[in-house]
Amino acid sequence: MAEAVRVKLRRLPHGEGLALPAYATDGAAGMDVLSAEDVELAPGARAAVATGLALAIPSGYEIQVRPRSGLALKHAITVPNTPGTIDSDYRGELKIILINHGHESFAIARGDRIAQLVLAPVVQAAWDEVEELDETVRGAGGFGSTGGHAKLA
Ligand SMILES: O=c1ccn([C@H]2C[C@H](O)[C@@H](COP(=O)(O)OP(=O)(O)OP(=O)(O)O)O2)c(=O)[nH]1
Ligand SMILES: [Mg+2]
């Protein structure tokens, strides 16, 4: 595995005493991030849940906020903006947006692992505006133009 990229992190007052986001296993892609507050999510409700953390991600990287599959499968709790984008120049509190798609209220307790953070490299694009684009076999076909979900023969 490549060497870890160092990311500066600051605990906010309400994040004191909480474990830092961490990889649950050696090969984990995402670090589980903890809630810094108790939140009750009614069916259909969403909330920006505090983590008590502020970050300075190195330039050239982002952090993606992804749902945890266990919460999604067992409780229908997910991240509506997945993957959430944490920009390298953001210095505010990292918040995890959660939505309850289930039929029952869901209680999040301070210290619960609510989502996972994936560090990813970012390449910025620059536009080259042109009059014509090159032709391809696909052309303007999309949205199922190659045969939908049926098996390839
Ligand atoms: O799940 C998320 C998504 C975003 N953010 C923070 C970090 C991110 O850098 C900033 C802006 O996010 P985004 O660009 O997704 O939101 P926007 O609606 O475009 O807001 P803005 O105009 O501030 O960019 O908000 C979070 O804390 N959690
Ligand atoms: Mg934005």
UniProtKB/TrEMBL annotation:
<dbReference type="InterPro" id="IPR036157">
    <property type="entry name" value="dUTPase-like_sf"/>
</dbReference>
<keyword id="KW-0479">Metal-binding</keyword>
<dbReference type="GO" id="GO:0046081">
    <property type="term" value="P:dUTP catabolic process"/>
</dbReference>
<protein>
    <recommendedName>
        <fullName>Deoxyuridine 5'-triphosphate nucleotidohydrolase</fullName>
        <ecNumber>3.6.1.23</ecNumber>
    </recommendedName>
</protein>
<dbReference type="GO" id="GO:0004170">
    <property type="term" value="F:dUTP diphosphatase activity"/>
</dbReference>
<comment type="similarity">
    <text>Belongs to the dUTPase family.</text>
</comment>
<dbReference type="InterPro" id="IPR008181">
    <property type="entry name" value="dUTPase"/>
</dbReference>
<dbReference type="InterPro" id="IPR033704">
    <property type="entry name" value="dUTPase_trimeric"/>
</dbReference>
<feature type="binding site">
    <location>
        <begin position="85"/>
        <end position="87"/>
    </location>
    <ligand>
        <name>substrate</name>
    </ligand>
</feature>
<feature type="binding site">
    <location>
        <position position="81"/>
    </location>
    <ligand>
        <name>substrate</name>
    </ligand>
</feature>
<dbReference type="InterPro" id="IPR029054">
    <property type="entry name" value="dUTPase-like"/>
</dbReference>
<feature type="domain" description="dUTPase-like">
    <location>
        <begin position="20"/>
        <end position="147"/>
    </location>
</feature>
<comment type="function">
    <text>This enzyme is involved in nucleotide metabolism: it produces dUMP, the immediate precursor of thymidine nucleotides and it decreases the intracellular concentration of dUTP so that uracil cannot be incorporated into DNA.</text>
</comment>
<comment type="pathway">
    <text>Pyrimidine metabolism; dUMP biosynthesis; dUMP from dCTP (dUTP route): step 2/2.</text>
</comment>
<feature type="binding site">
    <location>
        <begin position="68"/>
        <end position="70"/>
    </location>
    <ligand>
        <name>substrate</name>
    </ligand>
</feature>
<keyword id="KW-0460">Magnesium</keyword>
<dbReference type="GO" id="GO:0000287">
    <property type="term" value="F:magnesium ion binding"/>
</dbReference>
<dbReference type="GO" id="GO:0006226">
    <property type="term" value="P:dUMP biosynthetic process"/>
</dbReference>
<keyword id="KW-0378">Hydrolase</keyword>
<dbReference type="Pfam" id="PF00692">
    <property type="entry name" value="dUTPase"/>
</dbReference>
<keyword id="KW-0546">Nucleotide metabolism</keyword>
